[in-house]
Amino acid sequence: MSRVKIGNIELGEFPLLLAPMEDVSDPPFRAVCKAGGADLMYTEFISSEGLIRHAAKSKQKLDIFEYERPIGIQLFGGDIGNMVGSAEIATSVNPDLIDINYGCPVKAVACRGAGAALLQDIPKMVKMTEEIVKCTPLPVTVKTRLGWDEKTRNVTEVAERLQDIGIKALTVHGRTRVQMYKGEADWSLIAEIKNNPRIHIPIFGNGDVDTPQKALEYKNRFGVDGIMIGRASIGAPWVFNEIKHFMKTGELLAPPGIVERIRVCREHVDFSIRWKGDRLGVFEMRRHYSNYFKSLPDFKPYRTRLVEADTAGEVHAILDEIGEVFSDQLTLA
Q: Fewer CB atoms inside 10 A, N or C side of the chain?
């Protein structure tokens, strides 16, 4: 099997990508996913308007670190000029690639003519992409969906047109915008793109891959060059290594036990504090605790205490206690 490349970026034979997820895939989360086997990661999506206005929240999302490479910065917006300007700003912080979001289905994004809304205006999508490709020396990639709705599943046309104006890879989420995240992802059109003799860029599939077995099945069944993992990595950043091990050996790794879950959670906390400081770093970890320990029985009181903790010392003390109380939980489903 040939090795997958985006421009000059080597990604191995079958790369596993961490999806950009708002309020999730910040540098601390990316750090534990990198340790867990992710081959390519993206920032949270960044508003082009926010970057142009130098909004603090948008600029902070540009933070990338050497240990994350290869790392892509993902941008979204509905104005071509602002998208070009934001791509130039993003290029200046030296990521490995620029990714354009044409897939976000959230109303607040789509109603502003950004994200998946561009699937309703393919000429504008093509023009926007072309201008971004021209303005940056970095490889430009795109993430999108099958189409706006069932009547406009136009991603096969989109793939050819975007490749023709210079994108270096395409990720497709197997749902329309109208579907949001409901129902089952349909990878048949993703396979159609991959099997198109005109297509020569890497094609990555996204949607519903949450086990090593399904990852291998989709690899064989749909022939994609790699898979992007999103929700399945939340609370389980080791999922990438689990998939790689199964693909290599045909054997499932034992689920991580309480000791390993606590270790990874501690690392996540420490990265969060180093990035945002003690108070904010602890605060922003609150959304992650229940995901790390969701299979523990009677965990709710500990979750409440973790969420109420104000300092790193308190968090680590509670994690110590969890380790002692649940020490018999060697493996967790």
A: C
